[in-house]
Protein backbone atom coordinates (compact mmCIF):
# COMPACT_ATOMS: atom_id res chain seq x y z
CA UNK A 1 0.00 0.00 0.00
CA UNK A 2 1.22 3.47 -0.79
CA UNK A 3 0.68 6.71 1.10
CA UNK A 4 -1.80 9.09 -0.55
CA UNK A 5 -3.93 12.15 0.13
CA UNK A 6 -7.63 11.27 0.24
CA UNK A 7 -10.43 13.78 -0.20
CA UNK A 8 -13.87 12.52 0.84
CA UNK A 9 -16.96 14.59 0.17
CA UNK A 10 -20.05 13.13 1.80
CA UNK A 11 -23.55 14.41 1.11
CA UNK A 12 -26.78 13.60 2.92
CA UNK A 13 -30.22 15.00 2.09
CA UNK A 14 -33.91 14.31 2.53
CA UNK A 15 -35.36 11.76 0.06
CA UNK A 16 -36.54 14.61 -2.21
CA UNK A 17 -33.02 16.14 -2.24
CA UNK A 18 -33.82 19.04 0.12
CA UNK A 19 -31.87 20.02 3.26
CA UNK A 20 -28.56 18.75 1.90
CA UNK A 21 -25.63 18.58 4.34
CA UNK A 22 -22.10 18.32 2.96
CA UNK A 23 -18.99 17.20 4.84
CA UNK A 24 -15.51 17.31 3.32
CA UNK A 25 -12.53 15.49 4.80
CA UNK A 26 -8.98 15.76 3.47
CA UNK A 27 -6.66 13.27 5.12
CA UNK A 28 -3.66 11.03 4.61
CA UNK A 29 -4.35 7.40 3.95
CA UNK A 30 -3.30 4.24 2.15
CA UNK A 31 -4.06 3.10 -1.42
CA UNK A 32 -3.50 -0.26 -3.10
CA UNK A 33 -4.34 -0.86 -6.74
CA UNK A 34 -4.29 -4.05 -8.77
CA UNK A 35 -6.43 -5.33 -11.64
CA UNK A 36 -8.94 -7.24 -9.51
CA UNK A 37 -9.18 -5.11 -6.37
CA UNK A 38 -8.55 -1.62 -5.03
CA UNK A 39 -8.23 -0.75 -1.33
CA UNK A 40 -8.54 2.75 0.14
CA UNK A 41 -8.11 3.23 3.91
CA UNK A 42 -7.96 6.20 6.26
CA UNK A 43 -8.62 7.31 9.83
CA UNK A 44 -11.91 9.10 10.43
CA UNK A 45 -12.12 12.39 12.35
CA UNK A 46 -14.59 14.14 14.64
CA UNK A 47 -15.81 16.06 11.58
CA UNK A 48 -17.37 12.91 10.09
CA UNK A 49 -18.85 11.67 13.35
CA UNK A 50 -16.75 8.49 13.27
CA UNK A 51 -13.68 9.56 15.30
CA UNK A 52 -11.65 6.55 16.39
CA UNK A 53 -12.58 4.50 13.32
CA UNK A 54 -10.55 3.23 10.43
CA UNK A 55 -12.56 3.27 7.21
CA UNK A 56 -11.66 1.00 4.32
CA UNK A 57 -13.22 0.86 0.86
CA UNK A 58 -12.61 -2.36 -1.07
CA UNK A 59 -13.44 -1.88 -4.73
CA UNK A 60 -13.89 -4.87 -7.03
CA UNK A 61 -15.39 -4.94 -10.55
CA UNK A 62 -18.91 -5.79 -9.35
CA UNK A 63 -19.18 -4.19 -5.89
CA UNK A 64 -17.76 -1.75 -3.37
CA UNK A 65 -17.61 -2.56 0.34
CA UNK A 66 -17.18 0.13 2.99
CA UNK A 67 -15.88 -1.34 6.25
CA UNK A 68 -15.50 0.65 9.47
CA UNK A 69 -13.52 -0.72 12.39
CA UNK A 70 -13.23 0.96 15.79
CA UNK A 71 -15.66 2.95 17.92
CA UNK A 72 -18.29 2.35 15.20
CA UNK A 73 -18.17 -0.87 13.21
CA UNK A 74 -20.03 -2.19 10.22
CA UNK A 75 -19.98 -3.04 6.53
CA UNK A 76 -21.96 -1.35 3.78
CA UNK A 77 -22.17 -3.08 0.39
CA UNK A 78 -22.76 -1.03 -2.74
CA UNK A 79 -23.86 -2.60 -6.04
CA UNK A 80 -25.62 -0.40 -8.58
CA UNK A 81 -29.31 -1.25 -8.77
CA UNK A 82 -29.24 -3.54 -5.72
CA UNK A 83 -30.38 -3.22 -2.10
CA UNK A 84 -28.30 -4.64 0.77
CA UNK A 85 -28.83 -4.70 4.53
CA UNK A 86 -26.65 -2.63 6.85
CA UNK A 87 -26.47 -3.39 10.58
CA UNK A 88 -26.01 -0.07 12.40
CA UNK A 89 -25.19 -0.08 16.11
CA UNK A 90 -26.04 3.06 18.10
CA UNK A 91 -26.02 4.01 21.79
CA UNK A 92 -29.82 3.89 21.71
CA UNK A 93 -29.95 0.43 20.14
CA UNK A 94 -29.22 -1.47 16.97
CA UNK A 95 -30.91 -0.89 13.60
CA UNK A 96 -31.10 -2.84 10.37
CA UNK A 97 -31.07 -0.36 7.50
CA UNK A 98 -31.45 -0.88 3.77
CA UNK A 99 -28.79 0.47 1.40
CA UNK A 100 -30.13 0.88 -2.13
CA UNK A 101 -27.29 1.83 -4.49
CA UNK A 102 -28.31 4.18 -7.27
CA UNK A 103 -24.96 4.59 -8.99
CA UNK A 104 -21.28 3.71 -8.67
CA UNK A 105 -18.59 5.36 -10.78
CA UNK A 106 -15.08 3.95 -10.52
CA UNK A 107 -12.44 6.05 -12.25
CA UNK A 108 -9.53 4.83 -10.13
CA UNK A 109 -6.22 3.86 -11.69
CA UNK A 110 -2.74 3.01 -10.48
CA UNK A 111 -1.91 6.67 -9.76
CA UNK A 112 -5.18 7.55 -7.98
CA UNK A 113 -8.38 8.98 -9.44
CA UNK A 114 -11.97 9.21 -8.25
CA UNK A 115 -14.71 6.98 -6.89
CA UNK A 116 -18.34 8.06 -6.57
CA UNK A 117 -21.24 6.26 -4.89
CA UNK A 118 -24.87 7.44 -4.68
CA UNK A 119 -27.38 5.56 -2.54
CA UNK A 120 -30.58 5.71 -0.52
CA UNK A 121 -30.92 4.63 3.12
CA UNK A 122 -34.20 3.15 4.32
CA UNK A 123 -35.73 1.78 7.50
CA UNK A 124 -38.63 -0.68 7.16
CA UNK A 125 -38.53 0.01 3.39
CA UNK A 126 -39.18 3.73 3.97
CA UNK A 127 -36.44 5.92 2.48
CA UNK A 128 -35.19 8.50 4.97
CA UNK A 129 -32.06 9.89 3.28
CA UNK A 130 -30.34 10.35 -0.08
CA UNK A 131 -26.56 10.01 0.24
CA UNK A 132 -23.36 10.09 -1.77
CA UNK A 133 -19.61 9.78 -1.39
CA UNK A 134 -17.06 11.30 -3.73
CA UNK A 135 -13.56 10.06 -3.00
CA UNK A 136 -10.46 11.51 -4.65
CA UNK A 137 -7.03 9.87 -4.42
CA UNK A 138 -3.75 11.61 -5.20
CA UNK A 139 -0.11 10.95 -4.39
What number of domains? Answer: 1
Unreliable stretches, pLDDT < 50, 5 or more residues?
Answer: none
> What general outline do the C-alpha atoms trace?
globular
Record field, number of beta strands: 10
Q: What can you tell me about this protein's structure?
A:
The protein has strands at 2-13, 21-33, 38-43, 53-59, 64-70, 74-78, 83-90, 93-109, 112-123, 126-138. By secondary structure, the chain is an all-beta fold. The chain has one domain (2-138): Beta Barrel (Lipocalin). The protein starts with a strand and ends with a strand. The model has no long low-confidence stretch (mean pLDDT 91).
Features:
single chain, about 140 residues, mainly beta, Lipocalin, 10-stranded antiparallel beta sheet, 10 strands, about 0% helix, about 70% strand, globular
Topology record:
Blueprint: E1 2-13, E2 21-33, E3 38-43, E4 53-59, E5 64-70, E6 74-78, E7 83-90, E8 93-109, E9 112-123, E10 126-138
Antiparallel strand pairs: 1-2, 1-10, 2-3, 3-4, 4-5, 5-6, 7-8, 8-9, 9-10
Task: Produce a short descriptive summary.
By secondary structure, the chain is an all-beta fold. The chain has strands spanning 2-13, 21-33, 38-43, 53-59, 64-70, 74-78, 83-90, 93-109, 112-123, 126-138. Strand 7 (83-90) and strand 8 (93-109) form a beta hairpin.
Amino acid sequence: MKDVVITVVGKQAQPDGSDEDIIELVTEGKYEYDNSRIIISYQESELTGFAGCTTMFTVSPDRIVLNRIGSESGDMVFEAGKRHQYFYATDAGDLMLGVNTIRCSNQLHEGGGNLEISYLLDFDDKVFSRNSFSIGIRS
